[in-house]
Amino acid sequence: MKLAAVVMLALLSGCAAMQGSAERTRASTMDIIAAAAAAAPEGVVGEYQLSIQAAGTDGRAVYLNTELDYRDQRNITIAMSPAVAAALAGTDAASAQQYFVGKKLLVKGQARRMKIDFMSQGKPTGLYYYQTHIRVKKPEQIKLLSDKAA
Question: Mean pLDDT for the chain?
């Protein structure tokens, strides 16, 4: 009976330790994507080491991508306002997006699975896919680790 209580306590301690792992640094994009999907719709708060391969903008936000194709299921997108991107790059918002390409970053934030609708004539088609996004609201959330993406 006492042995069963000890085993249960050990199991519960292990589960509690696993919950805290969401706040550790994660370097593998697939680990981040899996954790965000498992936590959906909430997301996973942590520090993430990401190598930026591509960047883009839609006028409202600057997007930094870990893959060349942002639709790739292995991609993680960092989304930030043009003002935050410009502050981090030390340049204007228009050229800020290219500053990050080829760099390795430490990003603090919530990795969250986002549903992306395919649109036709401004309306959702009913088809969609998922992306993993980390929203950056303040320049302090990003630290440059290296000028070379790994």
Answer: 84
Average pLDDT over residues 51-72: 94
Helices and strands, counts by H and E, the chain: 4, 8
- Which DSSP letter does residue 149 get? -
Average of per-residue pLDDT across 49-69: 94
Contacts 24+ apart (CB under 8 A), 121-129: 129/71, 129/73
What is the SS3 assignment for 42? coil
Look at residue 24 in the predicted model and tell me its pLDDT: 54
The domains of the chain are located at 23-140
Residues 79, 85, 89, 92, CA torsion sign: positive
- The pTM of the full predicted model, rounded to 2 decimals, is 0.79
> Under 8 Å CB-to-CB from 53, ≥6 apart: which residues?
65, 66, 67, 68, 101, 102, 149
Q: Please, what CATH class does the domain formed by 23-140 belong to? A: mainly beta
